[in-house]
Specification:
The protein has about 200 residues and is α+β, with helices and mostly antiparallel strands. It is built from four helices and eleven strands; from the N terminus they run H-E-E-E-E-E-H-E-E-E-E-H-E-E-H. Helix 1 crosses helix 4. The chain is globular.
Amino acid sequence: MQRAARVTSDLDNIRMALARPGPASSDFDLHPDIKLSPDRQLRPAAVLVPLFYHESELSVILTKRSSALKHHPGQIAFPGGKRDDADASIEAAALREAHEEIGLQAASVEVLGNLPPHETVTGFLVTPVVAFISDTFTPTPEPGEVEEVFSVPLKHVTDLAQYRQQGRIWQGRMRNYETVPFGPYYIWGATARMLRGFAELLET
């Protein structure tokens, strides 16, 4: 009963945090000098932020993209992708992508809410859908796309003290970005920025 009460309390806190309005984020947040066109067309996309209990604490599932991919090889990401015309909602898109990429069944998932959308430099408006996996789950990575599925304690990625801003040259100019490393995993860019947004909502 004690564990069940803790689970209920933790999930209720997350639901309340997600219900609060928060600012949208962008790959351009750390570059206020870049002026974005108000007429730009962004393609809708979704990622799933899957939470589950691992060793009595909430953890979040992430993937390491295949090094053979043309775009973003080897990077740490949430399962997700662009919304298809057949997807009934942005949440349906996130669940479909998670099923395709890591074998997660929608019936095992309870959607808790959405984080504010994140605009990527590649022209997508990504909605992070936070969900709780209530059943036992053994990931099945999609061959050729997902190299590894792993988890990180939620308390690590929701601790703002763990975040650092770094930079590298991209397309001839310095690009700054968020990072929140964990062990051998270098979590950065859009994934780290969306996780930071989660951390900020939980702290308000």
